[in-house]
Amino acid sequence: MKTTISAIGTAALLLLLLMTQHRLFAQETHIRVDARKPAAAIQPTLWGLFFEDINFGADGGLYAELIKNRSFEFDNRLMAWESFGTVSIHEENPCFDRNPRYVRLSFTNELNSTGLENRGFSGIGLKAGGKYRFSLFGRAGGETPVTLRIQLVGRSNDILAAKEITLIGREWRQYRAELESPATDAQARLRILMKERGSSADLDHISLFPAKTWKERPNGLREDLVQALADIKPGLFRFPGGCIVEGTTIDTRYQWKNSVGPVENRPLNINRWNYIFAHRRFPDYYQSLGLGFYEYFLLSEDIGAEPLPVLNCGMSCQFENNDDRQHCKVENLGPYIRDALDLVEFANGPATSPWGRLRSDMGHPAPFNLKYIAIGNEQWGERYPERLKPFIDSLRSYHPGIKIVGSSGPYPDGKEFDYGWQEMKRLKADLVDEHYYRPPAWFLANAGRYDNYDREGPKVFAGEYACHTDSRKNSFEAALCEAAFMTGLERNAAVVHMTAYAPLFAHYDNWQWRPDLIWFDNLRVVKTPSYFVQQLYSTFSGTHVLTTTCEGRPLTGQNGIYASSVIDMKTGEIILKIANTATEPRKALFRIRGGEKGSLVADRYLLASPGGEDENSLEEPGRVAPEKDQITLSGKQFSLLLEPSSFQVLILGKQAAR
Ligand code: AHR
Predict the structure, then answer these.
(1) How many CA atoms lie within 13 A of 472 on its CB side?
(2) What residues does ligand 1 touch, defined as CB less than 6 Å away?
(3) β-strand 403-407 against 431-438: which pairing, if any?
(4) Are strands 269-270 and 81-84 parallel, antiparallel or unpaired?
(5) Residue 621 CB-density burial (10 A; 0-12 exposed, 13-18 middle, 19+ buried)
(6) How many CA atoms lie within 13 A of 497 on its CB side?
């Protein structure tokens, strides 16, 4: 009897085991990677960056200037300054004709002194031991020299560092001083005090930069933020927008010629993100253009990315102003087209050409070797192609080597989108810019978006995209959906030549739009989960796509799995990118045709997090970050258990495809 019960028990156990194995087997996703025949080449521009001065991304962000409203040109001339004593604004006999206002300080009957304080961008960030370069243009009110006390003041009002400068004579001259901060303070301020009663002085372009900017350049960029960009290893860099390019009105559009030449004389522009969202207004948001087109080309060169400038096509932002009075008439487009031709000359022309000479005078005699230009940002309707055409005609005839990017409007589908594409094909644009800010379900459903795109026509530039969850946080869920979708971008590298997440930067205290790729405050940088996804794709971009299928079809969510793979023909590495969007683990069996016979050690980067809402923060910057390990696999066939809700990149040794 005992024996019988035990036999039945064993049989039941065996049956259970068989059933479990069967279930597991049924769930196992079979993935084939064909490494014998590399498919489309991957463009070096595939994984790029998109920069716009939104969320205080330039002034108060990447541009390292610490003084806000340094030229007293904001509409409220003393905005960002606290003044005491007798302080007034003037513009007669200015120091800079295109930024004519300056401040006059007079120390007359005040009990203490006359002076100014600047609070920077939500404070001035100082680092202990850091050196800071102060400068101003000034002139004394009379023949007697005027001494000014320059102080760095900490958040609790301690004077952290002080220097004196003495203005001599009635002519404008530049004065400089270097101050060293003994302490770290994210909310310091700059104070300027007059020393002698009875004196007066005019001051303009009051500036403070950390000595340690990126590559220690004067008028430089914030080192830690540039490093974060460089670490992505981007192949493309789009600039300066975005809606910034269009302007709310045609007069407030971005004009690149205002952004080059001596920085003191670059005319200020109001930033449209100052007022565009009624619930997140920033009345003190202006564009100094200190980070202008020269600095942009230089930065692109530094980080090894092809620059992609975007120019206004003669239209202001259609969301804000879509009536004809706010667009330039087609017959008046001459100066706009001239701007485009001159920009190419500024970037590529010989130092003997007018714009090439300016580039050379600014410090870069060699051309920047510009290859691409975009005309128009998010344009739609008939007005756009009729304006784009004369740009294309002129650019083709004067600069036939430059590839032209046109727009398909602000949405990834619909009547305007279809019309935009039809027109871009008719006009023979080289690439078409598509934008999508969409929810997670859209990203998952669209991983096959480009599988059937026409390979013969213009190529795709996915110029602005980000997954927007309900909370619009930079959550792990958003990053995972982007990672899954990006397998489709990679698989379709034959037609997708450029991409960029958007927007790039956001200051924690001053943002208008989220999610964003990189967050920062005055001293710290936080990389989002989406940042790491972009970085993994770009770092392990490979050179050619490998056909990767499950039952003969691309992996676009079978069992929750999205996958693509590439080979790097220079190193022989096969690189697999796999997103498991299911909340349970998944088993995948990989067969690599042409893979290594024996076993090999693979590097693996795993991005996973228990909670979809998990995000990185100033307090916990590394909460969601890739972990690297090594696993031993057979180069031809291996099983992988894919962690729930995870994205991983596997680099299969240095094996040449055979
Ligand atoms: O990235 C933010 C904005 O989104 C861009 O300025 C614009 O092109 C898009 O509508």
Answers:
(1) 10
(2) 52, 54, 241-243, 377-378, 410, 464, 502-503, 513
(3) parallel
(4) unpaired
(5) middle
(6) 17
* CA nearest to 166, candidates 132, 204, 138, 131: 138
The 8-class DSSP code of residue 2 comes to H
- From 6-15, 66-75, 394-403, the region with the lowest mean pLDDT: 6-15
Whether 69 contacts 58, CB under 8 Å:
no
Task: State yes or no: pLDDT of 67 exceeds 70.
Answer: yes
On the CB side of 318, CA atoms within 13 Å amount to 16
- In angstroms, what is the C-alpha Rg of the chain? 29
Phi-psi category of residue 653: left, alpha or beta, with phi > 0 → left and psi -120 to 50 → alpha? left
More confident residue, 479 or 109: 479
Burial environment of residue 212 by CB neighbours within 10 A (0 to 12, 13 to 18, 19 or more): middle
Q: Collect all residues with Cβ–Cβ distance below 8 Å to 491 and sequence separation of at least 6.
A: 450, 451, 545, 548, 554, 564
Residue 318's SS3 state is coil
- Give the 3-state secondary structure of 151-169: EEECCCCCEEEEEEEEECC
Structure tokens at 605: 């980067």
Statement: residue 24 has pLDDT above 70: no
Which pLDDT belongs to residue 465?
A: 98
Is beta strand 505-507 parallel, antiparallel or unpaired with respect to 553-558? unpaired
Both tokens of residue 404? 């032209």
Residue closest by Cα to atom 5 of ligand 1: 242
Q: Is the peptide bond before 242 cis (omega within 30 degrees of 0)?
A: yes
Helix (H, G, I), strand (E, B) or coil at 299: helix
In this structure, the strands spanning 431-438 and 459-467 are parallel
CA distance 33 to 40: 14
Bond into 38 cis (ω within 30) = no
Distance CA 228, CA 428 (A): 36
Atom of ligand 1 nearest to the CA of 503: 1
Per-residue pLDDT for 261 more than 80?
A: yes
Q: Are 518 and 528 in contact (CB under 8 A)?
A: yes
Q: What is the mean pLDDT of the chain?
A: 95
* Mean pLDDT, residues 402-427: 98
Classified as helix, coil or strand, 644 is: coil
| Nearest-CA residue for atom 4 of ligand 1 | 242
* Confidence (pLDDT) at 654: 63
**What residues contact 626, with CB distance under 8 A and at least 6 apart?**
532, 536, 605, 606, 607, 649
Q: Could you give the CA distance from residue 309 to residue 291 in angstroms, rounded to a whole number?
A: 14
Distance from the first to the final alpha carbon of the chain? 62
Task: Single out the catalytic residue among 65, 306, 378, 464.
Answer: 378
* Residue 580 neighbours by CB under 8 Å, 6+ apart: 560, 561, 586, 642, 643, 644, 645, 646, 647
- Cα-to-centroid distance, 312 and ligand 1 (Å): 14
- In the structure encoding, which two tokens stand for residue 631, read together? 């696993």
CA atoms within 13 A on the CB side of 39: 15
Tell me which H or E stretch contains 134.
strand 131-140
Q: Determine whether 464 is an active site residue.
A: no
What are 630-652's pLDDT values in tens digits?
Answer: 999 988 999 999 999 999 999 99
